[in-house]
Amino acid sequence: MGKGTSISVHHVTRVEGHGNIVVDLRDGTLQRCELQIVESPRFFEALLKDRPHDEAPRITCRICGICSVGHATASIQAVEAALGIVPGPKTRTLRRLNMCGEWLQSHVLHAYFLVAPDLFQAPSVIPLASSHPEIVKRALRLKALANEICYAIGGRHVMPISYLPGTMGHWPPPATLETLRARLLAARPDVEATVELFATIEWPAFEQEIEALAALEEDGSYPMMGGPIHSSRGPVFAPGAYREASAEHLVEHSAAKHTRGANGPVRVGALARYQLAHERLGPAAKKAAAALKLSPASRNPFHTTPAQVVESVQAWDEAITLCERLLADPAPEERAPVTRPRGGVGVGLAEVPRGTLIHDYEVGSDGRIVRANCVIPTGQNLAAIEADMRAFVPGLVGKPREQITRLMEMLVRAYDPCISCAVHLLDVSFVGDERHDTAGGAGAPTPDGP
Amino acid sequence: MTAEAMVTVVGAGNPLVGDDGVGEAVAMRLAELSLPAGARVRIAGGDALAVLEELEAGCKVLLVDAARFDGEPGAVRFVRLDRPGWPEPAASLSLHGFDLSTVFQLGRALNLPLRNAWVMAVRPDAVEPGRGLSPALSRALPRLVADAHRATLQMLSGLAPGGE
């Protein structure tokens, strides 16, 4: 790519949802660099209005098939906060076990189905399945295991139906927990092979300091179920003060809202969690991090994938522990009481695979939802992705256009964006002065390509 | 999980998008019936990979989903997944929206027994945001459940679904 060239990659592939990347580089100066989110909003917040509060988890889990457990978790916690309900420890354990299933499923799918093709120079997982079927079958096995966890706890493989204010609607019998535990233990070779596979990868070198945010639980466990929002810059924000940590705003080129922190873009997700809470990982995940050479000091967004692999190990290992804890005392827990029957405002946070998810509801005295606001991790990461693109692109000047396109897509993909959730694929456009490349497929050959 | 299940009925789609939820509606009603041993029901939402998971686990699959084809709303067609003619999969692979052509291509690449997976395609009336099935599909639901139940029994017996 010459100094005066701009590029247009239309339709970035292997991300969740639809978006475009537009890069305009003239005389060596970056004029414009945008991640355009072009999907239509889906208005889930409006859909919640006037609905009974206990329907909220079942409605909002439909925002995302990948993060349906996370949405149900944040949603039920927002309802509980609004009604003054404090669920008991076994309820929280059951919900955390379900989150472990979702983390394992989502991280494995992103690493194997969306990232691994890049590593094997395959355009998608389909040719990868032909050349390395054992790798793809391993991913399918791990996904099936994760789905079984979600089925046992949530009543469905996706979109759980068991979340009730103050309790869970289904308590798995000991035999189910025993089966799950046995299957988790039997999956050790697949988990270890996953770490070995991704430890062989040389990730692109790129570092950028961006404020990291994660909701850390106060009991010292690895962030998953929500808590005060911790910033890598030092401040800690109560859940109800989430807007101070990550304030939503509209930008012209995106149908999804961006957010910004006090100092600009923020980064959420596996790498941010690892940065802020790596010492909370269990021994198996710490061992995996060492094998992956993942440093807590890494500010390389491409390291999100190894961080996801570490978190996959954490989720797998912790799921075994949680099954054992529940087996030790499997009786259902009594439903926690409502202490604020007239309702109020409640904020529920969950660390879902892609980052901090925030549900903020107001529940009226009639038990119906008056107002809802959902802040999605991908929306929080969009400004960080653009900041990374602006810093990354100038270093690519002189490289073949096809390589630039591939690297740009890899950068966006590294964040595991779920545009579908944020509003809903990605198109990269390099628009330019003396030459305009119009919508070709991502990585489409160009006249001056290599 | 599926070691003893020989036929898994997979209900796909999103009930918040009108008749796109017909797969889930049929599967949920089916789950309320006394299914014979060896059959089970799975709600998949948009996760078409569920089909491959079930095939990998050795099960036959009946995927119930809304599909556009010529016919009246509520009309049913049974299509074997390894039938020729699926369009090329979309380049824009997304874990939210694996289309059946992608599932077919991926399953073929993995050498999975696609002949064991059938799609029970239901012609929708209205696929648009909003809760619940259209009146036409609500009326057709008992018949659709009966069709799915019969197809499950046929598959358990080693027959192709859809015949009388």
Instruction: Output the structural class of chain A.
Output: alpha+beta
Radius of gyration of chain A: 22 Å
Number of domains of chain A: 2
Taking the alpha carbons of the first and last residues of chain A, their distance comes to 10 Å
Largest sheet of chain B: 5 strands, mixed
pLDDT < 50 runs, ≥5 residues of chain B? 90-95
- CATH superfamily annotation of chain B: HybD-like
Q: Report the top-level CATH class of the largest domain in chain A.
A: Mainly Alpha
- Spatial order of the strands in the main sheet of chain B? 2-1-3-5-4
Helix content of chain A: 40-55%
For this structure, the quaternary state is heterodimer
Overall pLDDT level of chain B: 86
How many separate helices of chain B? Answer: 4
CATH architecture of chain B: 3-Layer(aba) Sandwich
CATH superfamily grouping of the largest domain in chain A: Cytochrome-c3 Hydrogenase, chain B
Beta percentage of chain B is 15-25%
CATH fold-level topology of chain B? Rossmann fold
Q: Judging from the principal axes of the Cα atoms, what is the shape of chain A? A: globular
CATH fold label of the largest domain in chain A: Cytochrome-c3 Hydrogenase, chain B
Question: Could you please describe the fold and organization of this structure?
Answer:
The complex is a heterodimer of chains A (450) and B (164). Chain A folds into two domains: 7-39 and 378-430, no CATH class; 44-328, Cytochrome-c3 Hydrogenase, chain B. Helix content of chain A is 42%, strand content 16%. Chain A has 15 helices and 15 strands. In chain A, α3 (68-83) packs antiparallel against α4 and α6 (133-154) runs antiparallel to α7. Residues 422-428 and 433-450 of chain A have low confidence and may be disordered. Chain B is α/β, with parallel strands linked by helices. Chain B has a single domain, classed as HybD-like (Rossmann fold, 3-Layer(aba) Sandwich), CATH 3.40.50. Chain B is 31% helix and 19% strand. Chain B contains four helices and five strands. Chain B has a five-stranded mixed beta sheet with strand order 2-1-3-5-4, sandwiched between helices. In chain B, β1, α1 and β2 (39-45) form a beta-alpha-beta unit. In chain B, α1 crosses α4. The longest helix of chain B has 22 residues, at 135-156. Chain B is globular, with a radius of gyration of 15 Å. Chain A binds chain B through residues 11, 13-18, 42-43, 47, 59, 62, 64-66, 68, 109-110, 113-114, 123-127, 129-130, 133, 136-137, 140-141, 143-144, 147-148, 151, 156-159, 183, 418, 420, 424-425, 441-442, and chain B through 1, 14-16, 42-47, 49-50, 52-53, 56-57, 89, 91-97, 102, 105-106, 109-111, 129.
